[in-house]
Amino acid sequence: MPMKFTTTFILICCTTLVFSQDKTGYDPQQVFDPQFLNAPGNEYRSGNGTPGPMYWQNKSDYTISCTLDTTKDEITGIVTITYTNNSPDMLDYLWLQLDQNLFTTSSRGHMSTPIGGYRFGNLQFEGGDSIHSVSVVEHGKTVTPQYVITDTRMQIMLNEPMKAKGDKVILKIAYSFKIPLDGSDRMGITKTRNGKIYEIAQWYPRMEVYDDIQGWNTLPYLGAGEFYLDYGDFDYTVTVPANLIVTGSGELQNPNEVLTSTETDRLNKAKSSDSKVFIITSDEIGKASIRPKSSGMLTWHYKMHQTRDVTWACSKAFIWDAARVNLPDNKKSFAMSFYPVESASDSSWGRSTEYLKFSMEFYSKTYYVYPWPSASNVAGRVNGMEYPGIIFCNWHSKMSGLFGVTTHEIGHNWFPMTVGSDERKYAWMDEGFNTFINMYARQNFNNGEYKENQSIKRIASLMSHPGKDPIMTYPDVMNPRELGTLAYYKPSAGLKILRDEVVGANRFDYAFRNYVSHWAFKHPVPMDFFRSMNDALGEDLTWFWKEWFYENWNLDQAVDTVEYVNSDPTQGANITISNRGQMVMPAVVEIKEANGKTARVNFPVEIWQRSGKWKFHYNANDTITSVVIDPDEKLPDIDTSNNTWPPAK
Predict the structure, then answer these.
(1) pTM over 0.85
(2) For residues 179 and 506, what is the distance between their CA atoms, to the nearest angstrom?
(3) 118 falls in which pLDDT band (50, 70, 90)?
(4) Would you place residue 114 in the very low, low, confident or very high pLDDT band (cuts 50, 70, 90)?
(5) Between the CA of residue 7 and those of 3, 16, 18, 429, 562, what are the distances in Å?
(6) What is the 3 state secondary structure string of 261-326?
(7) Gap between the terminal Cα atoms of the chain
(8) I want to staple 636 with a disulfide (CB 3.0 to 4.6 A). Which of 48, 447, 460, 593 is the partner?
(9) Residues 6+ apart with CB under 8 A from 45
(10) What is the pLDDT of residue 203?
């Protein structure tokens, strides 16, 4: 039976609702928007946030050989790429990344670098990839294709289109490039008292990703936006002067050729030791006894399976220590550190392997088992950069700073090296997730030795700047000064609030691990994450995803009034709270009475679905002395002066 209302009642209700919206400045229809993120799932990406039954991704397998010329600081190499088109589409051409082309004075990245430079800019270095030859094997025929290089992208036109669902081509490219001294804080050369440290990254032509979202992903490399890469198997060799030590992504295939018998014995000992074992000590640096031969060149051979990239570093200045990593289900991995004598104190890199080992074990136990045979931490000029199985951290870092950068960079081996999101577009899906899990690593390391509490008040102050970009902004488009806030701190704070204040730790952790498991070695986009969490939690959190990631809204909860029923405290009180900003959150209200009683009332976010005001009855037994909203200051409230009743004088 339909309910009957009088016209007067309808007008009163509407007037009250409009008045409350106008007074608070809050519009619930913007937050609780039923059309937001409402596109249907499909056969590739399901509505529940998991890969669909016909999900596909292309595969790129690499064989690379390169030589380092330490006189010219130059790399010369040949890369052979076996590219598999698993898509349902026919491909007429291929796109590759030539990241070294950032380091030319005509590159888009250089031309968009501000005066004075910044962390990810090109500081007047004239380098770039020199392409010496290109060939393609198409259906058994070797041809020399036409190709076009545009900034950091290379397009190869195929003579015969690649067929859908499994066709392969083999690309062979000979190339060289000068190593930049300062490679946009991602690679470079460090001069130490015992020789140069080379941190080599983005060192071979790499396939762009072709996916079901937009086809070829060809955003240029400008510096701030990182990388989006296919998965595949890598087999690579690095030829260097015989006095250099090389560490690289993956597993060394020829230790007996490039190490002495003493070093291989020490390595084997380290693989069964929970404490670090020195493979090369500070006293041995520079001595001929630590190298298999005293002159000429040595070739180091590495392999790595199911990875999106490989990287390496080398120096004659390295101290080298290592220890076993204990993973779930009795699996093992290996943690190694490479650093110069200048960094060797126990307050600095002397504890690097301890930090690395702990982080690998903690993230493996908590989120997903580390998938590769080893990980290396390399000291050099790079302040902090991550690659599969190897990380670069600053050689001057110490104590809490070194722990922080180590646990952060190795944490990237989960996001985005295992969960392969697009860093070029969605920096928060690797930096934000990683900063989030780093908080718990800090809390758990060595009884909280380096524990830090993330200040929600600080996050609130950062969020309150007018005109700030939303998190979903591409990193190359963000104001460089805001990158830390928008890619790292605000996303991690949002996940912490969601975990601790909205859904609860156990429910969140289950849903988060579920997301990681489903998207390991695949390519999720933001909607996949949002839907995956919604589905596993059984909650419609679209209001949260919209306000936190797509908008620049602020939270301002307040206590408005306390009115005793019939002016008698013993009959209870009607308390009105309000949401004066456009962001919403659940509300926790603490009430104290003159008799010493303290009580808390927890309201779900649904109280804000119709209006910016909420009135509730509280059964008081005595005079109420105070009412406080968000009493523990767990929310990013930009104005806490209105959080207490009676108002401060």
Answers:
(1) yes
(2) 48
(3) low
(4) confident
(5) 13, 14, 17, 51, 31
(6) HHHHHHHHHHCCCCCCEEEECHHHCCCHHHCCCCCCEEEEEEEEEEECCCCEEEECCCEEEEEEEE
(7) 53
(8) 460
(9) 51, 52, 55, 212, 525, 527, 528
(10) 98
Q: What is the pLDDT of residue 20?
A: 37
CB 125 within 8 Å of CB 180: yes
Q: Whole-angstrom Cα distance, residue 199 to residue 221? A: 19
Q: Which helix (H) or strand (E) holds 9?
A: helix 7-24
- Output the six-digit token pair for 582: 């456009």
E-assigned strands of 462-572? 557-564
User: If you average pLDDT over residues 191-210, what whole number do you get?
Assistant: 98
In whole angstroms, what is the distance from residue 250 CA to residue 372 CA?
A: 7
- Cα distance between residue 437 and residue 362, in whole Å: 10
- Of the candidates 521, 304, 523, the one whose C-alpha atom is nearest the C-alpha of residue 418 is 521
Helix spans in 129-181 (H): none
Q: Tell me the two tokens of residue 495.
A: 């996940």
Q: Residues 312-331: pLDDT tens digits? A: 999 999 999 999 999 999 99
pLDDT in tens, 625-645: 999 999 999 999 999 999 999
> 15-57 pLDDT, tens per residue?
333 333 445 589 999 999 999 988 899 999 999 999 999 999 9
Question: Distance (Å, rounded) from C-alpha 443 to C-alpha 453?
Answer: 9
pLDDT for position 462: 77
Tell me whether residue 330 is exposed, middle or buried, using C-beta atoms within 10 angstroms of its C-beta: 0 to 12, 13 to 18, 19 or more.
exposed
> Which residue type, as a one-letter code, is found at position 186?
R
- Tell me the sheet residues that pair with 336: 322, 376
Strands (E), 531-585: 557-564, 573-579
- Distance of alpha carbon 411 from alpha carbon 401, whole angstroms: 15
Structure tokens at 185: 């804080």
CA distances from 240 to 46, 57, 66, 280, 337 (A): 48, 35, 9, 18, 20
Mean local confidence (pLDDT), 387-398 = 98
Identify the weakest region by mean pLDDT among 49-53, 160-164, 221-225.
221-225
Helix segments in 292-445, DSSP class H: 352-366, 399-411, 431-444
- Positive/negative CA dihedral, 214, 218, 224, 228: positive
Mean pLDDT score across all residues of the chain: 93
The mean-pLDDT minimum among 82-86, 239-243, 458-462, 632-636 falls in: 458-462
Going by C-alpha positions, the residue among 388, 389, 402, 288 that lies closest to residue 339 is 402
Alpha-carbon distances of 571 from 568, 589, 616, rounded to whole Å: 6, 19, 14
Task: Evaluate whether 186 touches 97 at the Cβ level (below 8 Å).
Answer: no
Residue 539 near residue 516 (C-beta atoms within 8 A)? no
Question: Which residues pair with residue 80 across a beta bridge?
Answer: 63, 172
pLDDT of residue 455: 76
